[in-house]
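User:
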Amino acid sequence: MDRIVLTAGALYFIVLLRAGGTFAVGWLAGAGARRSRFAERTSSAKFRRAERAIQRWGAPVVAVSFLTVGFQTAANFIAGSMRMPLSRYLPALFLGGAAWALIYATAGLGVFEVLGRLFAERTAVGVSGVVVLALVGCGVVVYRRRRAAALSPGDTVAEES
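Assistant: Predicted structure:
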């Protein structure tokens, strides 16, 4: 239990820094956009309406984004760039970050424990699993590269006579 608490605490600290930093970068990027050639677009009625909606209703989205994969950074950046008030953002960050840290601490430690036991008790099975995963990963990369090369519109193949 102590390992879970320690891991969750460390992950919570990390997620607060990472997500808070992303929010701050978004805030600065939004401020820069408002002073740039995009100022016209950011002062339109449609943009202001979207900004007010995010400021008002974005906190639940930020909190839930921590339970998704790949959406956290975008949600925090957009919350910052659209100037979500800290009084709404911070509670969402604290709640979502805590949920994220607890999930990753418990599930993550469980996975590492299972993998440790697998390699300790059945080394051949563990090594075989790693080799299969590596081969699948390489196969996916090769497949995607070949598919991308076959679909690229600008390439022409020289005919042999």
